[in-house]
Design brief:
The protein has 19 helices and no strands. By secondary structure, the chain is mostly helical. The chain has one domain. It is globular, with a radius of gyration of 22 Å. The relative contact order is 0.13.
Length: about 450
């Protein structure tokens, strides 16, 4: 598996497209959509993130095990991994994995669609009680959006198998193209006056292009031929093997969603849509900073899984150190720019929605940095096909929702409640404990940081 600087550059290119979307689409959206409508779009985006919960950690397990198979593993295990004797790919085992993916995500997408259609009349009706704009347009956008999410779930594993195979560059190229199409389509419909529906249609066309290309890249002629000849066991057997760790990862994802996304779905019952819009835009921009900061580590994550199988501990330590250093530098640099110039830029483009105050942005940046640092540590353990701090993650997610209700109901903190409930729930324990555990496991010292940093600067 060859992953190098070209893969990293394309990963940054894909991240840059998200930035370009913010630079090009977001200003136009902020100028053309009322603050109330931006608040509703924040709810849409939260639902998109929440639907990923239905994956329940299987995409991560599938991708990691695809890496194991392409690294030469002949048997998948519930915990840990089998020793690698040869680098030859077992296409029968790969066929089992792909069959399991198709079955699982077919069921997941159908389940989501049923829940979405059943719950929409009650939820959206409640949200739109305080909305003064065109409610019919919101309903239309909402149901199109639901169809998109069902399609995304059904094809959720396409990009995961590309990454698992080590085709990081091709996957990033597909993302760059699909994001470019999304920008063009969204802007065209915005200027045509379609409002929030423009954002939904841009996402729809982008997703179809992305998933179609990802499928065709993975299933090349050679792969199709070898899979056709391969014998396979029942896909359910593979799901049973992956289920224990996948379900644990799923509950950890639930904790993340409770801390970061469910709060926006609850907030409309306590805060105005304008306040939610300010929080939502601030969160989007800081999340973008986080995606830039963690892009390097994510690019080389398949290599981390490979190093774990091959028991190359020094290489594991090197990836961890570089990942955390790049994350920190990114947050310091881009976070400072966001605090100092964010609202000045929004005022310059005549945005109808501004960011939160500088002190609030600082807290959001701090808490999200600590969360991403914890994510890197979690993935270090996960690369060995092990899941730790399962119960602690669940407790932190539940605690964040409890804190949110208490703060909104019994204090006048307002938007600050959304920031504090997530940060406090995570960092009381797991936010520091997990990175500490990884540092102890890989025998990390300050000298290691100094050595890696100097070698990186010399290069």
């Amino acid at each position: 598996m060859q992953i190098g600087r070209k893969d990293l550059l394309w990963n940054y290119a894909a991240t840059s497209m998200r930035i370009l979307s913010g630079i090009v689409v977001l200003p136009v959206t902020l100028r053309m959509l009322p603050s109330e409508e931006m608040g509703i779009w924040s709810i849409f985006l939260s639902l998109m993130t929440i639907t990923s919960l239905l994956d329940f950690g299987f995409s991560n397990s599938f991708s990691r095990n695809v890496t194991y198979v392409y690294s030469g593993v002949k048997e998948l295990k519930i915990k840990g991994y089998a020793a690698v004797e040869t680098s030859e790919t077992d296409y029968g085992l790969l066929k089992n994995l792909l069959s399991a993916m198709k079955r699982y995500y077919g069921i997941v997408s159908l389940a989501f669609l049923i829940i979405f259609l059943a719950g929409s009349p009650f939820y959206i009706s409640s949200v739109l009680e305080q909305y003064s704009g065109n409610k019919q347009a919101i309903w239309t956008a909402w149901f199109i959006f639901g169809g998109i999410l069902a399609y995304e779930l059904y094809t959720y594993y396409y990009n995961a198998i590309l990454t698992g195979r080590g085709l990081v560059k091709r996957n990033m190229q597909i993302i760059v193209l699909s994001q470019s199409i999304r920008i063009v389509v969204t802007l065209a419909f915005l200027f045509a006056g379609l409002g929030i529906i423009s954002l939904v249609l841009g996402l729809l066309i982008s997703d179809v292009v992305n998933r179609t290309l990802a499928y065709n890249v993975f299933y090349d002629k050679e792969t199709k031929a070898k899979l056709a000849k391969a014998t396979t066991a029942q896909g359910w057997d593979t799901i049973k093997t992956l289920a224990p760790n996948s379900l644990k990862i799923g509950f950890i994802s639930l904790s993340y969603l409770l801390r970061n996304q469910c709060i926006i779905l609850i907030a409309p019952f306590y805060l105005s849509l304008s306040q939610i819009a300010e929080y939502g835009i601030s969160r989007q921009i800081i999340a973008l900073i986080a995606s830039i900061g963690i892009a390097w580590f994510n690019t080389f994550y398949p290599k981390l899984s490979q190093y774990s199988v091959q028991e190359k501990q020094k290489d594991r330590k090197r990836l961890y150190i570089k990942g955390t250093i790049i994350l920190l530098l990114t947050f310091i640099t881009l976070g400072s720019l966001c605090i100092l110039y964010g609202n000045k830029i929004l005022i310059l483009i005549q945005s109808k929605t501004l960011l939160l105050s500088g002190s609030y942005l600082f807290l959001m940046l701090l808490f999200l940095f600590l969360e991403q640092n914890q994510v890197i540590a979690h993935n270090m353990i996960l690369a060995k096909n092990e899941v730790s701090f399962f119960k602690a993650n669940i407790i932190s997610g539940i605690a964040s929702i409890v804190l949110l209700f208490i703060m909104l109901q019994f204090t006048s903190l307002g938007v600050l409640s959304l920031i504090l409930c997530t940060g406090l729930a995570l960092n009381v324990y797991i936010g520091w404990k997990l990175p500490y555990t990884v540092a102890k496991e890989i025998q990390l010292t300050l000298k290691d940081y100094k050595k890696i940093t100097l070698s990186y600067l010399i290069k």
